[in-house]
Amino acid sequence: MLITGKRYLDYSSFIKSTFGNRVQKITLDIGFSCPNRDGSKGFGGCTYCNNDTFNPDYCVPTKSIKQQLEEGILRFSKKYKTQKYFAYFQAYTNTYSDLDSLKKMYEEALSVENVIGLVIGTRPDCISEEIIDYLSFLSKQYYISLEFGVESTLNKTLIDVNRCHSFEDTIAAYKLCENKGFHLGAHLIIGLPNESKEELLNHAIEISKLPITTLKLHHLQIVKKSIMAHQFKTSPEQFNLFTAENYIEFISEFIGLLRPDIIIERFVSEAPQDLLIAPKWNGLKNFEIVDKIDKLLTQKNTWQGKFYLKASNY
Predict the structure, then answer these.
(1) How far apart are CA 120 and CA 185, in angstroms?
(2) Which of 65, 147, 176, 276: disulfide with 271, CB 3.0–4.6 Å?
(3) For residue 312, pLDDT beyond 80
(4) Residue 130 and residue 180 in contact, taking contact as beta carbons nearer than 8 Å
């Protein structure tokens, strides 16, 4: 069992234990689309999405993968001289292409000096056995993590936010990828419209049934240039956005229900202030939120998985 010094398994401890050093993700944008944008399943994309909220300025699809990586590495290497890097295929759906094209992209990334692995963000309905077999092959030499945007375990919510796939699709995708040699991650948005607290907590129970190594959480943020920004303006009553205090309290409960061997990669995400509409947490930074979560877990004498067996049996 990974020893972290925290009341949950944190990602930085996992990386240090695995590699003996820092490993920095370098975000890439290779110009992919999504099936709920290009018409193959729908149009408009996910209602909450504006990819500008997480793309750094060097990260533009007009630049080659090698150039994006080298510019990102140059930026981060100024502070940490000896760290290694993951090429992070983040924007949109990064398995949404033919296998030959994906091979060229992934191999270009792995050819860059000090890049030791790939982190690939995608959708559960955009994976195939041939892509899985190729990633399994790569995992024999490199760290490979495939992250699925789960977002919610409720089909009613997935319909509302225009995901154009079901939670059953998510379960099937993880089953295809299980025991293939690469790591599996999941991403959840906490607080999507019309989800009750009981339903939100049940996400921890349902996500724990999936064969995931890592989990990313963040609270719902309304950002400019998204469909949800218009919905928030015209129908604010359907939104129940977290305050910082309520989110910290919620996470302290959520952690207790989560399978104890899942590595928690993040609790919170911070959209750029010039794009963020709501909620605004008085300038609290991510590390400050995490520190408050750590302190509350200690105060409540709770920890990851404390209630997992009881909840899963129930």
Answers:
(1) 9
(2) 276
(3) no
(4) no
pLDDT digit string, tens, across residues 37-75: 888 888 888 888 886 655 566 666 778 999 999 999 999
Distance between CA 181 and CA 176 in Å, rounded? 12
**Contact of 241 with 278, CB cutoff 8 Å:** yes
Does the global pTM surpass 0.85? yes
The neighbouring-strand residues paired with 190 are 219
Strand 222-223 versus strand 214-219 pairing type: unpaired
Strands 214-219 and 263-266: parallel
Confidence of residue 271 (pLDDT cuts 50, 70, 90): confident
Return the SS3 of 235: coil
Distance, CA of 203 to CA of 312 (rounded, Å): 12
Residues 6 or more apart in contact with residue 86 via CB below 8 angstroms: 23, 24, 25, 26, 115, 116, 117, 118, 119, 143, 145
All residues at 6 or more sequence positions from 265 whose CB lies less than 8 Å from its CB, including other chains: 11, 185, 214, 215, 216
Long-range contact pairs involving 295-298 (C-beta distance under 8 Å, separation at least 24): 296/248, 296/249, 296/252, 297/7, 297/8, 297/252, 297/255, 298/7
Give the distance from CA 77 to its chain's centroid.
Answer: 24
Task: Supply the DSSP string of 145-180, one letter for each residue.
Answer: EEEEEEE-S-HHHHHHTT--S-HHHHHHHHHHHTTS
